[in-house]
Design a protein that fits this description.
The chain is α/β, with parallel strands linked by helices. It folds into two domains: 143 residues, Nitrogenase molybdenum iron protein domain (Rossmann fold), CATH 3.40.50; 101 residues, Nitrogenase molybdenum iron protein domain (Rossmann fold), CATH 3.40.50. 52% of the residues lie in helices and 12% in strands. The protein is built from eleven helices and eight strands. Helix 2 links the parallel strand 1 and strand 2. The longest helix has 30 residues. It is globular, with a radius of gyration of 26 Å. The termini are far apart.
């Protein structure tokens, strides 16, 4: 009887010892960085930022977007899974514009709680245009944003500095090539006016000498007086196309379009493929200008 108990006791202790050894070995191997785990964990607010970070970081970064698709960033709340990812992230690249409440509500407070997390203002050094946070809709601010990304990645991962610098130089050349292409596409249209529902193209208009007139004002539905003014301007300028950002309610834009006999053309200011998004935007603006 006693021998039986001793065998059971010994057996249980053996299982405990094995389990402990397995746990310790697992923890030890988990501490050894693999190709995947060695990557910097990066989070950004919107998809075009991810494009920039991935261009600079390459295989050394893993990028997650906080606000996916075309959801309303004013009303969006992070999911529990996203909050866990945030707690494990190395860097959060925020837009850093004062008129993007999602970041002031959820990201800035994390700076004091998550000691591991480095929060970087991607728009540092960029001359911001009023309440418009869409600085990536012009190649010139994107150059500065890319430099900010490369500097921050190098600071967090010094071993990858040469990679980041090489990728930055390559990407800046791509940005300059795109800018020259867009300048050619917009040539002869300087001074033109286009109407858009949500004012997402302020930086685009500034770069290429255009005027943007928005139906929506300060993120709020337009007043009756403002709608009348927009309709009057559209008739004066003989505007036949109104731009609307993908994912936005078309009701007010459609009302203006019907009043002036115009059609709606969709743009995507949140395309994760930034280069493609800029080219498609330029084509839509050309149509809105009657070209």
């Amino acid at each position: 009887m006693i021998g039986s108990h001793l065998r059971i006791f010994a057996s249980s202790h053996l299982r405990l010892a094995v389990a402990t050894a397995v746990f310790l070995l697992t923890a030890a191997f988990a501490a050894i960085p693999s190709d995947v785990s060695a990557r910097l964990e990066i989070m950004v607010s919107v998809p075009p930022q991810a494009f920039i970070v991935e261009k600079i970081g390459g295989e050394r970064v893993n990028v997650r977007v906080m606000i996916p698709g075309h959801l309303d960033h004013d009303a969006y709340e992070p999911t529990p899974r996203q909050l866990v990812s945030l707690s494990r992230a190395d860097i959060y690249f925020k837009l850093g514009t004062p008129h993007f409440p999602f970041e002031t509500r959820y990201i800035d407070p994390a700076a004091g709680r998550l000691k591991r997390l480095l929060i970087v203002n991607m728009s540092e050094g960029i001359g911001l245009l009023g309440e418009d946070p869409h600085f990536w809709m012009s190649p010139l601010p994107v150059r500065q944003a890319a430099a900010n990304v490369a500097r921050s990645l190098s600071g967090r991962d010094p071993a990858g500095r040469s990679v980041y610098e090489k990728n930055l130089n390559r990407f800046l050349q791509e940005v300059d090539d795109l800018d020259r292409l867009l300048l050619g596409m917009m040539k002869g249209m300087e001074g033109g006016t286009f109407i858009i529902f949500h004012p997402a193209l302020g930086y685009f208009a500034s770069r290429y000498g255009l005027s943007q007139v928005a139906i929506e004002t300060e993120g709020k539905p337009p007043s009756a007086a403002h709608l009348r003014n927009v309709i009057r301007l559209a008739k004066e300028k003989r505007i036949r196309t109104i731009l609307i950002q993908k994912g936005f309610d078309r009701k007010n834009a459609a009302a203006v379009a019907r009043e002036i006999g115009a059609k709606l053309a969709e743009i995507d200011a949140l395309d994760r493929d930034w280069t493609r998004g800029m080219m498609r935007t330029a084509e839509s603006v050309r149509k809105a200008l009657g070209r």
